[in-house]
Amino acid sequence: MANNPLTIAALPLQIVAADRRANLDAVEQALVALRPGTDLLVLPELFSTGFVADPETVSRLAEPDNGMTLTRLRELAARFRVALCGSMLGCNPDRSEFYNRAFFIEPNGETTYCNKRHLFCLSPEAKLMTSGRGGYATVRFRGWSIGFGVCYDLRFPVWCRNRTVHGSPAYDVFVFVANWPEVRGYALDILLRARAIENQAYVVCANRSGSDDYGSYDGQSYLDDFMGRIVARSESAEVIYMTTDRRALEFARRRLPAANDADEFTINY
Prior knowledge:
Blueprint: E1 7-10, H1 20-32, E2 40-42, H2 55-61, H3 68-80, E3 83-91, E4 98-105, E5 111-115, H4 125-128, E6 137-141, E7 144-150, E8 164-165, E9 168-169, E10 173-178, H5 185-199, E11 202-207, E12 211-212, E13 215-216, E14 222-224, E15 230-233, E16 240-243, H6 246-255
Parallel strand pairs: 1-2, 2-3, 7-10, 10-11
Antiparallel strand pairs: 1-16, 3-4, 4-5, 6-7, 8-9, 11-14, 12-13, 14-15
């Protein structure tokens, strides 16, 4: 099998609260400065607004899939020929439901979505948002299978289990977009490593930087390999990078074919 490495970047964006235009401009600036040959740029959870706890503000800022935020991101993905993954404050067409909506935008504009399944119990999120009704999403991009979910989804290993689909793992890379504060930073580090090890896949966590009413976030973005080893960790708002290795991943899976012994089960969504 060809190695076809994938270069992944995570942007620990210092989100400007409730200012979509400023945050989109910051993403564009990051793309201008991105390392040549980067295939995928991962943005934090709710990158364009930050977390919003006021129902009226949620209603004002939430967007459908053809709104300003995703339209601008599709233009940027096409111009820079880089895929973009993150989450935004979304809504259905009649604005009767609001979502923490993850997206994966390919350079050709094709977009895959996944609404946050597990809404955070210590915040108003569960009262303001509608939970995702299915499993994690996957895309096939430049020869790699990529799964993605949102923040608190990380704590539920059954939900993000690497299923076997037509004899192959559902994903080679799993992306978590997050607003995960430093006060629970130890758990974030350990859970990311555990998901990488148990699923034999690279794991990416793009967390925001700076601080808000819920805590501080610096140093909490991670790029881990399939053995749970940290390849890169953020220190501030600077982009971090990782390049995947297909041969090394496949060798590790052959050496310990743990997926062959995985339990069969179903999840009731």
